[in-house]
Design brief:
Helices cover 31% and strands 17% of the residues. Strand 10 and strand 11 form a beta hairpin. By secondary structure, it is of the alpha/beta class. The strands form two sheets. The chain has an eight-stranded mixed beta sheet with strand order 6-12-11-10-7-8-9-13, sandwiched between helices. A five-stranded parallel beta sheet has the order 3-2-1-4-5. The protein is globular.
């Protein structure tokens, strides 16, 4: 579930029928700006006047037994006093704070987290969804015909419109054939440039790219060279996107990776508050900027489904995906041997270092570490 931090004032101002209330009811834990003693007095009231019908905390607890309130006054006080170190450890945090709107906006932009003032609480950004159907723009020479109706050319701005750009400080890209489809990473760079805010603190954003290195050849030398070329070629370019100094990491399956790596066949981009899905892959434009294939391209925020329906929420899907990612990373760490001539995984993060000798134990991606 998401990590919701909100003030007592914000919670008490919620209507039972509000979107914010419904999203809270989907959580397992909600953090509030109270001490344990203050919270206990509301959740286990000695005074009958604080019982059902008069005390929103007690009422909510009775109606939603899946949700636990947790006292977190120290974290709230740190943030209010300008110490934002805790925010970096909570990449899925939804922060509703006792701050003015300008301060909340600055926190959101600087740290890539969803932050709002308790006086202007609005979770609607978490329910947005956008889908485009991308049509192939290339002539099919095999059957020698031109497309009868020229497809509408879709840019990255069309695929990811402005209202779908949510705060972001950590990204995991899963596309096994990303660099088979787009050797120069042009499409990935276009997507990342669109997603990442230019006001984000430099050196704060993390990116992990998971892909398959097996199709480049059968020999160890071919595969090692192909992986080295990807890391040394793309890491310096991606790092400079929007002048953010992104921490870029690459994890590639190679010689006989385990079955759980095969489960990563679906193409996904996971961020703090959204999931992007491409049916065929993210390397979708050719070198003339034409769409190479038909596919549906969808971006969903965490609660764009499953609030008023029985469907799974994208947030729950993110949990499932990230648990699989963590299992793969854990396995890669355990099996790492820099002297193994046929490694199951390769890991790289620095173009200046030898990417075939770096251990996955050095992986720092914020989302992966959070779910670990």
């Amino acid at each position: 579930m998401a990590s919701v931090y909100l003030t007592k004032k914000a919670f008490e101002s919620m209507e039972d029928s509000s979107l914010e209330y419904n999203i809270l009811s989907k959580q397992t834990k909600v953090y509030v700006d109270m001490t344990d003693d203050q919270l206990d007095k509301l959740l286990i009231p000695d005074d009958e006047s604080l019982g059902y019908g008069t005390n929103p905390f007690f009422d909510f607890q009775e109606e939603h037994v899946n949700v636990t309130f947790s006292a977190a006054k120290e974290i709230f006080d740190q943030i209010k006093n300008g110490n934002y170190s805790a925010i970096g450890k909570i990449p899925d945090g939804i922060f509703v704070l006792d701050v003015d709107e300008k301060t909340a906006e600055n926190i959101k932009n600087s740290f890539g987290v969803l932050c709002m003032s308790e006086d202007n609480m609005d979770f609607s950004i978490l329910t947005r969804r956008h889908t485009e159907f991308c049509e192939r723009e290339i002539k099919d020479n095999a059957v020698e015909y031109d497309l009868a109706t020229k497809p509408r050319h879709l840019t990255f701005a069309d695929l990811i419109p402005e209202d779908m750009i949510l705060p972001c400080n950590s990204i995991v890209v899963i596309d096994k054939y990303l660099f088979d489809d787009d050797k120069e990473g042009k499409c990935l760079i276009g997507i990342l440039s669109r997603l990442l805010g230019k006001k984000l603190q430099r050196s704060y954003c993390h990116l992990l790219i998971i892909f398959d290195n097996a199709k480049v050849g059968t020999s160890e030398e071919n595969r090692k060279e192909a992986f080295r070329n990807i890391v040394t070629g793309l890491q310096p370019i991606i790092e400079k996107i929007n002048d953010l100094r992104i921490k870029v990491e690459f994890l590639a399956g190679d010689f006989n990776p385990p079955k759980m790596f095969e489960d990563m066949h679906n193409r996904k981009i996971v961020t703090n508050y959204s999931i992007i899905t491409a049916e065929h892959g993210f390397g979708m434009y050719d070198n003339k900027d034409h769409m190479k294939w038909d596919q549906k391209f969808t971006i969903e925020s965490l609660y764009s489904d499953g609030i008023n329906t029985t469907s799974i929420t994208p947030e729950k899907e993110r949990q499932i995906i990230m648990k699989k990612v963590c299992s793969i990373v854990r396995y890669a760490r355990e099996k790492f041997d820099k002297n193994n001539p046929r490694p199951q995984f390769r890991f790289g993060q620095d173009a200046k270092a030898n990417p075939t000798k770096i251990s996955p134990k050095d992986l720092v991606n914020r989302l992966e570490r959070f779910y670990e």
